[in-house]
Structures are given as structure tokens and as C-alpha cells.
Design brief:
The protein is mainly alpha-helical. Helices cover about 50% and strands about 5% of the residues. It is extended, with a radius of gyration of 21 Å.
């Protein structure tokens, strides 16, 4: 009887943990510690047309050169793609500092408001 009760309690805790948005398992904590301090992407290789060097760096560091290599580059039709210049431009826009209160109203209202007009299948959401 106690075994069944213990099993029911463990099952209930698992359900509670799955509903808890802030629950961090040991796997999550390990992944977060891996991500700490690495850049989102090594844009300097993209800007200097040295993506082959970035690939080599990723291979040498076992994907620890940037967050995108750590989780895996985006894929389409089983082909991995490095990030593109338009993604860098979006990244720059999204990472801009918040406008100062002395900036004009248009600048403050348009902060991080982006529209992407594109054809389907381009791989951006």
C-alpha cells in the first residue's frame, strides 16, 4: 500500500513539475550553464565572408563557439544553413538600445517594431 502511495505521489510531482514554467531540471541547469557566456552567433565570420572558418571553429570546439552551433544550425530539406546577412540586420535592430526619453516620439514608438515582408518558404518567422 505504501509503495502505491509513494508511486502516486511521485507521479503527482512529475505532473506539477511539467506545469511549472519555472521548474528547472538538472538537464536544464546543465544546458543553461553551457550557454552562459557564449555569443548568439559569431557574426564577424559572416561579415568577413569567412563562414568556413566559423565551421572549423565549431568543429574544433564541439559546437561551443556560439549558441546557434550549440543547439544546431537551422535546417531546410536536411541541409544546415549558416545565418544570413538579413538575419544579422534583424538581430542588430532587435538588440538596439532603448531610445532615450529625449529622442523624438517617432523613434521611441518605432523601437523594435519590425515588419518582414517576404515570400513563403524563406525560413523566417
Amino acid at each position: 500500500m505504501f509503495e502505491a502511495l509513494e508511486k502516486a505521489i511521485q507521479q503527482r510531482e512529475k505532473v506539477q513539475q511539467s506545469k511549472d514554467l519555472y521548474y528547472q531540471s538538472e538537464d536544464h541547469k546543465h544546458f543553461y550553464s553551457l550557454c552562459k557566456g557564449i555569443p548568439f552567433y559569431r557574426w564577424e565570420y559572416l561579415l568577413n565572408n569567412h563562414e568556413a572558418h566559423h565551421y572549423e571553429l565549431a568543429r574544433e570546439t564541439h559546437g561551443m563557439c556560439c549558441w546557434n552551433h550549440l543547439i544546431g544550425l537551422p535546417e531546410k530539406d536536411r541541409i544546415k544553413h549558416n545565418l544570413y546577412m538579413y538575419e544579422y540586420n534583424l538581430f542588430k535592430e532587435l538588440m538596439k538600445d532603448k531610445p532615450k526619453s529625449t529622442d523624438n516620439i517617432i523613434t521611441r514608438q518605432q523601437h523594435k517594431h519590425l515588419a518582414i515582408i517576404k515570400a513563403t518558404g524563406l525560413g523566417i518567422t
